[in-house]
Amino acid sequence: MIRLEQCGWFTTLQDHCRSGWQAYGVSLGGAMDLEAFTLANALVLNEMHTATLEITQAPHRFYTDEDLVVAFTGGGLQPHCNGRKLAMNMPHFIAAGNEIVLQAPTEGFRMYMSVMGGFEAYRLFGSCATDLALQAGGYNGRALRKGDLLRDNPDKSHGQE
Question: Of all helices (H) and strands (E), which one includes residue 36?
Answer without folding.
Answer: helix 34-43
